[in-house]
Structures are given as C-alpha cells and as structure tokens.
Amino acid sequence: MSKKNVSHTKWMKRAIFLASLGRNTTSPNPNVGAVILDKNGNLISEGFHYKAGMPHAEAMAFEKLNKNAKGGTMYVNLEPCCHHGRTPPCVEKVISSGIKKIYISVKDPDKRVSGKGIKLLKEAGIQVDLGLCKKESLELNKAFIHRNITNKAFGVLKWAMSIDGRVALKNGKSKWITNEESRSLVHSLRAEFDAIIIGGNTLRKDNPLLTTRGSKKTEPLRVVFTKSLDLPSKSNLWDCSRAKTLVIYDSSTANESYLTRLPKSVEVEKVSSDNPELISKILADRGCNKVLWECGPRLATAAIQSRCIQEIITFIAPKILGGENSMNPFGDFEFEQMNEIIKLSDSQVSLIGNDICVKSSFKN
Ligand code: AOF
Ligand code: ZN
User: Fold this and answer.
1) Does the pTM exceed 0.85?
2) What CA dihedral angle connects 281, 282, 283 and 284, to 10 degrees?
3) Which of 6, 51, 132, 331 is most open to solvent, judged by the fewest CB atoms within 10 Å of its CB?
4) Pocket around ligand 1: residues whose beta carbon is below 6 Å from it?
5) pLDDT averaged over consecutive 10-residue blocks of the chain (364 residues)?
C-alpha cells in the first residue's frame, strides 16, 4: 500500500471508530462517523451519529467546524444522505462546504438514499472514492443493512447448554447451567439489541426479566410469541415500568379471550400464522435492526428454518445433564443426509471462567 493510501485508510478507520461510539444507541439509524481534513491534510473536524433525531455524523462535524473546509477531504463510512428525514440532507452540507474529495466506505441501503447521495456529490463536482475499508464498514452496520435489504431484523440466536448438549432436565428445570459470569455477560450482551424474543413456553417455564439490568438506558423491547395466548396473568414481563413488552400471537390458533389477562401496559399484535418471519418483519417495521432470540427449541428451530437467524451465540458449561428426554436446544430439522445439515462459519471461541462461549455465523 502506498504512503498516501495508508493515510486514507487511517482516516477512514478513525471515521469507523467514531461511528462505533453510537453502537447501541442509533437504531433504527446506522452507525456513522465523519472526519474532515483541510486542503493541507490537517484534521479540522469530526463527528458521529449518536441517536435517531439527533444530527447525522456529517452535520455534527460541520457544526463543530470553525476552519475553512474549501478544497478539503472528507471520510465517512456510509454514503451521505440526500433525503429530508428527521434531519436535513447531509449532501447539501458537504456540497456547500466546498470539500473537493470524499471517501465513502459503503453505499447507504436505505431506499431514500441508495446511490442518489453519491450521484448528487458527483454532479456537484466532488470527487467520490467508494469502497475504502468496506469490510469493516459492512461489519459495523450489518444489522442496519440487513434490515434495509430484507425488511427483516438481523437475528442472533442465543442458548446455554451443558457439555452434553442439553438445555434443561426432562422436568424443565435449568437454573443454572452456565456460571454467574456467563449469565451476567448475557445481560450486557442484550444492550446490543433492539428487541429480545422468547416463546410462550419460555415465559411459562422461566418467568424471565429479559433486561440488560440497567446497562442500556432504553431497555430492549421484550417480545413474547404465543400460539395459544394461554399466558399467566402474573409475569415479570407484565411490569413495563423499566422495559416495554410486546405480545405477538398467532390468530389462527390463539384463544383471544385470554387477552384480558394482559395488563394495558403490554402491547399486543396479531399475526396470521406461526411463521417467525412475521415476527421478524413486525420488529423490522418498528425499526429494530438487531434482535436476540432467547427462545426454546420449537421457536429456535422454526426461526432458523425461516432464515430469521444470521448468527448464533452458545454458552457451553462443563456439566452433564444426561437423560434421553432432557431438552435439546432444537427440535427436528428432518435432515436425512449429512450434506443437509447446517454448517456455520466464522467461529469465535472464548472462555468465561469454566464455560465456553462460541459465536458463529450463518451463510444465508
Ligand atoms: C448520513 N449520516 O450520520 C446517518 C445517516 O431520520 P433521519 O433524518 O435520521 O434519517 C435516517 C436515515 O439517514 C437512515 O435510514 C440512513 O439512510 C441515513 N443515516 N446518513 O448521511 C448519518 N445516520
Ligand atoms: Zn445524513
């Protein structure tokens, strides 16, 4: 790499770092960072997007700018927007600043932008370089990009199991398989997500809280999917004072008279079947980029089959539950041949005390 390219990469990496400061707060918006250099290559301003409704990264960088950007260079990890949304278009600010060249890492998949921002910049005579640090930028905004392309939320499936692959005893008891450190890691992991999904069985069996225990200011939305609506009238999830709860039910099988058991503070939506894709779509429509499925075997299997899961996180404890009828993390995928089985990629392994955490991606 030439010396010049090394420095362009350095500035784009700075923009990506700034973007990452908004990691758990920008949803439904993307993570964006912007860096401005003057015509001599000196850093004169920078900014990042913190929250939807607040200034975009470029706008923040221009707001802070007290030197002339004419003839300068800008680095942004996402194509500047050209639409009037919650905030005015960034391209107009870039054009009026007199900047000569802009490095953009990836195109904005939002249909209101999607190449139109780049076109306007070029038409205004600004040199546009697209693709610097593309891999890192795609990784940072993978959930935002996934939602915009598929209209579904980026799904991560999480489960905890014993070393013999069991998630509960045959009587349903599972407290606790993993150690305290792993469990508290799950609480902070939840902060990366906009929603956490469980099924009715998990609610009845575990009565979970599904919160980050305060590590995120606005707790993720807690979502219960039920086929029957036969949910208990008392549950930790019905207290919505710290985190909101949404119950999604399958109207083809549910008994709607059970709706009276739910307090008014719980939101309710109905879907026409038990296809998890419908849950993912509802959440994407609500602006959820990234959702965590913490569900039991039946919903987990269906979520994988309907391509709602893009990554998995499993915690494995060195404990043996045994028993042919202990619970598995999944139901039957009906595979007949070894070439049909699901193969995951990009595995990362870490040790949490005596537990093992494995993260892997789906190729779909
Ligand atoms: C940028 N820079 O920092 C961000 C952008 O409702 P709004 O006005 O916040 O617009 C949201 C859309 O703007 C979002 O879907 C994405 O296309 C773009 N986000 N664009 O130029 C930024 N956050
Ligand atoms: Zn913008």
Assistant:
1) yes
2) 50
3) 6
4) 29-30, 32, 49, 52, 56-58, 78, 80-81, 85-87, 90, 108, 110, 113
5) 81 98 96 97 97 96 95 98 91 97 98 96 98 98 98 98 96 94 96 98 94 93 98 97 97 97 97 98 98 97 98 98 95 96 97 98 83
Instruction: Kindly report each contact of residues 108-115 with a partner whose C-beta sits within 8 Å and lies 24 or more positions away, as own/partner.
Output: 108/30, 108/78, 108/79, 108/80, 108/81, 109/144, 109/145, 109/148, 109/149, 110/81, 110/83, 110/148, 111/148, 112/81, 112/82, 112/83, 112/85, 113/79, 113/81, 113/82, 113/83, 115/79
CA of 45 to the centre of ligand 1 (A): 19
The residue assigned the tokens 């039946």 is: 298
Rounded Cα distance between 299 and 291, Å, is 14
SS3 220: coil
Place of tokens 């600004």: 126
Tell me which residue has its CA closest to atom 18 in ligand 1: 81
From residue 293, alpha-carbon distances to 9, 108, 308 in Å are 36, 27, 9
d(CA 123, CA 118): 9
Q: Are 31 and 17 in contact (CB under 8 A)?
A: no
Amino acid identity at 140 = L
Q: For residue 108, which atom of ligand 1 is closest to its CA?
A: 17
Residue 9 is classified by DSSP as H
The protein residue whose alpha carbon is closest to atom 21 in ligand 1 is 80
- Neighbouring CB atoms inside 10 A of 204's CB total 14
Which residue carries 């349903």 as its tokens?
172
Asked about 63 being catalytic, the answer comes back as no
With tokens 């609500």, the residue in question is 286
Do residues 224 and 246 lie in contact, with contact meaning Cβ atoms separated by under 8 Å? Answer: yes
